[in-house]
Write a structure and sequence with these properties.
Layout (H helix, E strand, L loop, with lengths): L23 E2 L4 H11 L3 E5 L5 E6 H9 L4 H14 L8
Parallel strand pairs: 1-2
Antiparallel strand pairs: 2-3
Helix pairs in contact: 1-3, 2-3
């Protein structure tokens, strides 16, 4: 906000929010969730129900705890997701 010249004391959420959003459905696979996070370089992903209402959020930490109990390809997929999310880019939301 400061870099954009906004008066922080008078800013509202709309002044700093991301306009394009991404979410996963509660019934999607964890691999699909990780893929969405990787593709869009986001660290937290809202989870929606059948009526597109947010019912939760999956974070990198949630996935790290989950992956810690997995083996082989799943751990590799988690590592790849972390690498993708952390990759510097000028336009993360593609």
């Amino acid at each position: 906000l400061v870099a954009s010249g906004y008066e922080v004391n008078h800013a509202i959420v709309a002044d700093c929010m991301t306009e394009e959003t991404f979410a996963c459905h509660a019934e999607e696979s964890v691999r699909d969730c990780m893929s969405t996070m990787s593709r869009h370089q986001i660290r937290r992903l809202p989870i929606v129900d059948d009526r597109d209402r947010v019912i939760g959020i999956v974070s990198q930490a949630d996935l790290a705890r989950w992956a810690d109990n997995q083996r082989g390809k799943v751990k590799r997929a988690f590592t790849d997701m972390m690498d993708d999310i952390s990759e510097p880019t000028s336009s993360a939301y593609t």
